[in-house]
Amino acid sequence: MERVPSVNAFQIKRQAHAVSRSDAGWNPFRHVWNKDHRRSQTWDGNDAEAQRGINPNDLEGSSPIEHSHTAPAGGSFRDMGADAEYPVERTDSSGETVVPSQRTTADATGHEAAGIRKRKTDGDLEKTEGLDPEEKKPRKDHRMFKHVEPKEPFTTANQIQRTLLNSWINVLLVAAPIGIVLGAIPDMNQIAVFVVNFIAIIPLAAMLSFATEEIALRTGETLGGLLNASFGNAVELIVAIMALVKGEVVIVQTSLIGSVLSNLLLVMGMCFFFGGLRRQEQYFNVTVAQTAASLLALAIAAIIIPTVFDKETTLPPSSTAALSRGTSVILLFVYSAYLYFQLKTHQDVFAEESQKVPMRPSKHALHPGAIKKGMVGPAGLMGLPGRNEEGSSNNEQLQKILNANPTGHEDDDDESEDPQLSFTVAMGTLIGSTVLIAFCAEFLVDSIDYVTKSGGISKEFLGLILLPIVGNAAEHATAVTVAIKDKMDLAIGVAVGSSMQVSLFLIPLLVIIGWGMGMDNMNLSFDLFQVAVLFVSVLLVNYLIGDGKSHWLEGMLLMCLYVIIAVCSWWYPANEAVE
């Protein structure tokens, strides 16, 4: 029975990141060292038939490919083996001329040829028969971290390159120490502190995501899922915890709602729009989309009910906090059930691939096969006329060869499960980037009050629009890149999956953390404006993804709604925000 490949949030994000990081396009987060080595595997014309799986004897009516002067008279170029002998006159010791009999590999008996072909197979069978039935079964590795062999050995040079110099966006890493130094100076301009630390967190978030994937590659499905749940939205979690410690509950709530809106409207809208510009429609897994829509509806209901309960009653904040904490526990249970549904019981549904749609050709591009037709049409197959038994010309035979993939690989940009960092380097990168993000987030949160009071920016705009850019910039670029490549299942998995993780895991987790800190105002009672825009966004997204297909107009609708929310949050009165 064929084993269904495991599909979870970690695998989806890793596949999407692998595609986007190896893309040679506009993505600033792509890995500059990650080149596709498959392009170096060229078509060896010396063994053309062997590579294409075509027997030269099937090309009847055509002359064998041979040198016109020095080749032997008989047999095709496939018949010339290493031990072939040709009639060469020689003189023996008695002075008589001896002509040895002609013998080529073509004259070998079928039994001899079969023996040569089966030599390795028979040896393998002997080894297999010698094994016990227990030894034939692959042993399950129960270790927490498994060993993964890299394609090339780890060196100091390539580890530094793959961590610090792997992307052009890492140029912004210089802002991290500068931002920390500026934040430590007492009388420094707080706007400068905010801007520099804001910029510094963007490459640190991408580095944290990369290190998490490298560590999860060495774990099992369960631990990998826990790592993804813990560090998949680590930047939002760190910023929210820092704001919660400072008592900035409004920033915590708006940043979480803003992260959901950013993924649902901006990211998915850009995926639909740019992916559908040169395609009539794009398709994605309907079951996955409908499941996501149901979970998003439950998440918004879990926020609306405590909000209405708080706004329409005169009960003390402790009652709303108790309701929110109970609801948060239920949401965490739902998220766990969703992971079990995705990993165990219905992983075959999530592993289904959606229909692919070819791109419309560009106006200035050559139509597909133009170069190949130019090669085949005028000259033919080595200039040799002829037709085979089925009536197909040699030109058609060559056309079939050219139409096939010359490298023998499928046209897939997905990166194999090959580790790029050693476990020690990956763990060090994870810890180091987390610590740097924590410092930058602390100084970022400290400067928010000054920025909102003197900079003319409301906390609603800062939380709903600006802060989500910090943690989601890398995933934004990843989702749009894979959508342009018509990998919509990966794009939907990144965008909607991140939204569900924030709404079903991160928000209730922070309510529980606030419970432990004794903060009753950290509850599920959000601002009415936030609840309204979240409800409208989820409603529109559920309508658009329910049919399992998209086009550029749907993407434009999502982006326009996001712009409307951004404009409203910019003019949102600061004094209406309830601390």
From TrEMBL:
InterPro entries: CaH_exchang, NaCa_Exmemb, NCX_ion-bd_dom_sf. It is a multi-pass membrane protein. GO terms for cellular component: endomembrane system; fungal-type vacuole membrane. It holds the Pfam family Na_Ca_ex. The chain crosses the membrane at residues 168-185, 191-211, 223-245, 251-274, 286-309, 321-341, 423-445, 465-484, 491-516, 528-545, 552-572. Its main location: membrane. GO terms for molecular function: calcium:proton antiporter activity. Residues 191-343, 426-571 form the Sodium/calcium exchanger membrane region domain. Residues 26-140 are annotated as: Disordered. The keyword Ribosomal protein does not apply. Residues 94-107 have a biased composition (Polar residues). GO terms for biological process: intracellular calcium ion homeostasis. Keywords: Ion transport, Membrane, Transmembrane, Transmembrane helix, Transport. It comes from the Eukaryota. Residues 121-138 have a biased composition (Basic and acidic residues). It is found in: Endomembrane system. Belongs to the Ca(2+):cation antiporter (CaCA) (TC 2.A.19) family. This is Sodium/calcium exchanger membrane region domain-containing protein.
